[in-house]
Amino acid sequence: MDIVFIRQLQIDTVIGVYEWEKTITQRLEIDLELATDIRQAAAQDDIRLTLDYAVIATRVQQLICAEPIELIETVAEKIATMLLEQFATHAVRVRVCKPTAVANAQTVGVQISRGNWA
Ligand SMILES: Nc1nc2c(c(=O)[nH]1)N=C([C@H](O)[C@@H](O)CO)CN2
After folding, report:
1. Among residues of the chain, what percentage have pLDDT more than 70?
2. What distance in Å separates the CA atoms of residue 112 and residue 79, rounded to the nearest whole number?
3. Largest alpha-carbon pair distance within the chain?
4. Is residue 56 within 8 Å of residue 75, measured between CB atoms?
5. Is 98 in the active site?
6. Which neighbouring-strand residues pair with 30?
């Protein structure tokens, strides 16, 4: 199985549980992995036969910035659902980090795996 991935996609958005967080933007850093098969795209050197990471990044940005969200868990699930519905992949991993959330921690976050990785 092959993977198209994005590392440390940085998105500034309204995210958080507390009232003070609803009036500011904070940075999320997102890692994505999408299961795929790159062989046809490579053989024909054709972007139309693979998962376009630029398109994926734009779609994720639009999804997460569309409305305020409280939990990074919600962010992860929304992204995973959208990727499985809108792109030619049967399994995804999504990691969402909120690097400014906890003092003295480099970052905090959640990671989920959805779909069939078998
Ligand atoms: N598991 C989670 N814990 C916490 C979250 C979250 O989204 N998932 N969010 C917060 C606050 O918004 C925090 O980031 C403010 O600094 C606390 N814990």
Report:
1. 100
2. 10
3. 52
4. no
5. yes
6. 9, 96
Ligand 1 mean position, distance from CA 36 (Å):
32
From 71, 79, 96, 110, the mutation candidate for ligand 1 (largest count of ligand atoms within 8 A of CB) is: 71
| Sheet strands (E) in the chain | 2-13, 26-36, 91-97, 109-115
| Spatial separation of the C-alpha atoms in residues 60 and 77, rounded to whole Å | 12
SS3 96: strand
**Residue pair 33/24 in contact by the 8 Å Cβ criterion:** no
Domain-by-domain residue ranges, the chain?
A: 2-115
Contact status, residue 30 vs residue 50, Cβ threshold 8 Å: no
Question: What pLDDT score does 118 carry?
Answer: 85
Tell me which fold the domain 2-115 belongs to: GTP Cyclohydrolase I, domain 2 (3.30.1130)
Q: What is the pTM of this model?
A: 0.97
Task: Please report the ipTM that was assigned to this predicted complex.
Answer: 0.97
Q: Which two tokens stand for residue 104?
A: 């003295």
Q: Which of 58, 98, 100, 102 is catalytic?
A: 98
